[in-house]
């Protein structure tokens, strides 16, 4: 999300109406429902986490202890267990 100057995109009459509610403040205007993107859609984060979680699960199946995985991936033991449970159910 980037900031745009209201003067560059809105008519003066609309700016004046908005100023009645917030004068000089920041407001967030959400996307229309039809334009919303799912989390991670613009980045490779979703793909990275899926690969990481599969890797964690495979190491667990090979006998790597949860504590070791926790240290290797800088995650809490409960996060590792959650990932393992999710991978088992998928």
Automatic annotation (TrEMBL):
SUPFAM superfamilies: Homeodomain-like (SSF46689). It comes from the Bacteria. Residues 10-89 form the Mor transcription activator domain. InterPro entries: c-mor_Regulatory_Protein, Homeodomain-like_sf, Mor_transcription_activator, YraL-like. This is CD3324 family protein.
């Amino acid at each position: 999300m980037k900031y745009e100057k209201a003067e560059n995109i809105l008519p003066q009459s609309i700016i004046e109406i908005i100023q009645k509610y917030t004068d000089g403040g920041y407001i967030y205007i959400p996307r229309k429902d039809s334009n919303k993107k799912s989390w991670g859609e613009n980045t490779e984060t979703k793909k990275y986490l899926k690969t990481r979680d599969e890797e964690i699960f495979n190491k667990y199946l090979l006998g790597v202890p949860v504590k070791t995985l926790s240290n290797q991936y800088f995650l809490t033991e409960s996060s590792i267990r959650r990932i393992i449970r999710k991978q088992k159910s998928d």
